[in-house]
Specification:
Layout: H1 6-45, H2 48-81
Length: about 100
C-alpha cells in the first residue's frame, strides 16, 4: 500500500468531519421542524400534545432516512474523485550502500 502524502490524509480527515457534522444537522433539523410545526398546529386546534408528538415522531423517522441517502451519495461521489489504488504494492527501495 502506498503511503499517502500528509496533506491528503488531512484532507480525508476534514472530509470526514464535514460529512459527520452535516449528517448531525440532517438528523436534528426534521425533529426540530416537526416540533415547531406540531406546536403551531396544536395551539390553533387546542390539541396540545397530539400533533407535536406525531410530527416529532415523523421527524425522527425522516431524519435517519435522509442521512442514510445523503451519506451514500457523498461516499459514492468521493470514491469517484479518488484515483484507483494499485493492486500490487510498490517495490521497497534499498537505501543501503553497495
Amino acid at each position: 500500500m502506498q503511503q499517502e502524502p500528509q496533506h491528503e490524509q488531512w484532507r480525508d480527515v476534514a472530509w470526514g468531519l464535514t460529512v459527520g457534522s452535516q449528517a448531525g444537522f440532517l438528523l436534528v433539523f426534521p425533529v426540530l421542524l416537526g416540533l415547531a410545526l406540531g406546536y403551531i398546529v396544536d395551539t390553533h386546534l387546542k390539541t396540545l400534545p397530539l400533533f407535536t408528538l406525531l410530527l416529532v415522531l415523523v421527524g425522527m423517522i425522516v431524519g435517519p432516512v435522509m442521512v442514510y441517502r445523503w451519506v451514500l451519495q457523498r461516499v459514492a461521489n468521493r470514491m469517484k474523485q479518488r484515483p484507483p489504488e494499485t493492486a500490487t504494492p510498490s517495490e521497497p527501495t534499498d537505501i543501503s550502500e553497495p
